[in-house]
Amino acid sequence: MAEMDESSAPELGAVRVRPARGSDLPSVVAIDAENTGVAKAAYWKDRFEWYAGRQPDRFFLVAERENRMLGFIVGEVRAWEFGSPPSGWIFALHVSPSARLHGLGTLLFEEICVRFRKAGVSHVRTMLAKDAHLLLSFFRSLGLMAGPFIQLEKRLE
């Protein structure tokens, strides 16, 4: 897959979507904490190393305006877990609350889907908490619906 360079990154007004780079990590931690109420610097450092390493099937994209990060999306192509053909999986999408309702989440979602298509997949998936009503509404507005799998879990004591 050919990698898009920053000069060809899509823009929404003055907003630009581009691959994440090392200097973005503090902003990623801050935006995640702003959205979740929990600062997880070590977690994001680990995830950043895994997803922002320029692997052809892993994507860590940021949206920025005037060199200020407004949001990010992270995903990868996964294949054959429990019989699933290759699919794009989104595992994180955060937009700073002060930058919401301007199409940034949609722009990020559309851009990662472009990359998933270029990687050869035809479906995108994600998983949400049952009480994540805002995210559920957002993803449904983009056409996502219940998929063919059921998530199961058991508490380990």
Number of strands: 6
Q: If helices are DSSP runs of H or I spanning 4 or more residues, what is the number of helices?
A: 4
Share of β-strand residues: 15-25%
Quickly give the structural class.
alpha+beta
CATH topology label: Aminopeptidase
Q: Which CATH architecture would you pick? A: 3-Layer(aba) Sandwich
Which CATH class? Alpha Beta
Instruction: Identify the strand order in the major beta sheet.
Output: 1-2-3-4-5-6
Describe this structure in words.
With 157 residues, this protein is of the alpha+beta class. The protein has a single domain (6-141), classed as Gcn5-related N-acetyltransferase (GNAT) (Aminopeptidase), CATH 3.40.630. The chain is 30% helix and 24% strand. The protein has 4 helices and 6 strands, in the order ββααβββαβα. It has helices spanning 25-36, 41-51, 104-118, 133-141; strands at 11-12, 15-19, 58-65, 68-78, 87-95, 124-126. It has a 6-stranded mixed β-sheet with strand order 1-2-3-4-5-6, with helices on both faces. Helix 1 packs across helix 2. The longest helix is centred in the C-terminal third of the chain and has 15 residues, at 104-118.
Layout of helices and strands:
Layout: E1 11-12, E2 15-19, H1 25-36, H2 41-51, E3 58-65, E4 68-78, E5 87-95, H3 104-118, E6 124-126, H4 133-141
Parallel strand pairs: 5-6
Antiparallel strand pairs: 1-2, 2-3, 3-4, 4-5
Helix pairs in contact: 1-2
Write a brief structural summary:
It contains four helices and six strands, in the order ββααβββαβα. Helix content is 30%, strand content 24%. Helix 1 packs across helix 2.
